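#dry-run=false #mode=assembly
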Amino acid sequence: MRVAAAAAGLVLALQALACGYCVEDKIASTYDHAVVMRALEHRHHVAFFHIEGVLPSGEGAGHALAALAESAAGVDKGSVRVSLDTLTLSFAFDPQRSSLGAAQRAVERKLALKKLSLMPLRVMERAADLKMPKN
Amino acid sequence: MKLHHLLLLAGLLSACGQSSTPPADSYDVAKMDLKPMAAKVTSERHKGAFAEGASLSMGAELKPLDASPVKTVRLDTTHKIIEIAPGVKFSAWTFGDQVPGPTVRARVGDRIRFSMTNRSDEPVAAPALTAAPMMHSMDFHAAMVSPQDKYRSIAPGQTIEFEFTLNYPGIFMYHCGTPMILEHIASGMYGAVIVEPRNGYPTKADREYVVVQSEFYAKPAPGKQKVDGAPLYVLDGDRLRAAQPTHTVFNGVHNGMVNNPLPAKPGERVRMYVLNVGPSKTSSFHVVGTIFDRVWIEGNPDNQMRGMQTVLLGSSNSAIVEYLIPEDGSYIMVDHHFANASQGAIGLVSTSAKPPAKDLEHHNMPASATPTDPDAVAGKLAFESKCLACHSVGEGRKLGPDVAGVTKRRSSAWLARWLKEPEKMLQTDPEAMAMLKEHNNIPMPNQSLGDAEIRQYLKYFEWIDQQPAGTVKSSAGGH
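#status=ok
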């Protein structure tokens, strides 16, 4: 029952997002083809998240957030992309070393310092294929 | 007596009600298709042509309406270098591999079966110079659909397919809707959908042309890369956000339809489908030498105005304008915001024009021979950007004199002063006054040129006059 309620909450949240930015548009805001190609070459995955919480503002806020996320275990170095405009964060990770959920939790532990959390939107496991994440 | 009158009135009203049936509402929502099917996204990639469909026109000349009630339209996205003005090779993003994208022509009630592959990752002639592959989408203003379903962004290599029915007549913009939308439109991702009324237009036109006005915001690439010897230009984000374009153009090319006028004959009725895509400027569309007999705002004959001189179009506004060609001549279409016209929003409909080449596409045209002196090169580029609308090189008089031989007719000092302050010379200099009279009292505008720019113009004019007579022409000198 609790699982069903949580799932319903996720669906509602995604619908709410669609009122402002389509999920795919959020993904587009951090999509970096070079990151994607590099990750897929190494059979890594690229995950896209909605950022929940009050984002820091000011110059360098996005870079600071990216640096924080990149310091999490399992996240590919140089792969984090952040869009403060669309509240989106993406990174590449090695699915052999950690699951999407584990990678997300590792990043969230870092972001907890800023009272931020992540909601998975899509994951790219192969080229031209954005899938709903299975947690 | 009073009662008698009332009864008579009631009888008349009743009779009226019985004898007249209300006219059919052509906008009856009950007859509209408002339940399109869900979009489908796959990782199956289109190959071959970037644009396909019998309803597509690639240039200014419109193909007749394709009778099929279902129009299959394929417009793939690409990244490529296009030439927006002579010598200005711009890193563009496209629909159908051209800017503007192909024009779709259909009719109310037709169904559009659309598909698009994001092919921004495909290798092109100069892959290192084009923008990195990125996500794109398609937003059809002609459709009534859920944007979250149909207008989703797709990644490089993905294909989206969806269908919709055309419910309203008009000229509708299409564009990429992926954030930042402003950048996607300013990079070239737009085009027009023409939707005819279910029963066609109320008039018959002899010529039909589509004119899409848009702005470019270009700056030399920071890496100073070159394409075919010319500098590469990229999107200038600062100018874009400040709405300060470097080029304002018709059909994607600075002065494009000056160099390739649209043909018409005296007595013919020309119908122009005009769309201003912006993204940020308004157009005051006007054709010098004629009056718009009919203007159908947004391209819908129900929105009719008669006898107009200009039509004002905001970003993503459109109009059909119809006018008669009264006599032999070149009729100048122009954005009457002359700051925009001076940036290239100018073109000709001419009774002496040859039929347009089958493909008016301007992309990747080979660079032509240029002078080697850097000042002369800069002068040539500036001349071709700012002056070709009114002056030719070696092709005779236009609105102003032919510049071939000008350094033999005038001294350098005279020319420098003329370029610097033409309005003052028109008041004081007898030669300038005579020239004004000779050219129908159309004054040369002050272009606010600096001394360095004037020197560059003069170097270019001198270079022209040093070439064998008749070998340098406007067309060979640039476009």
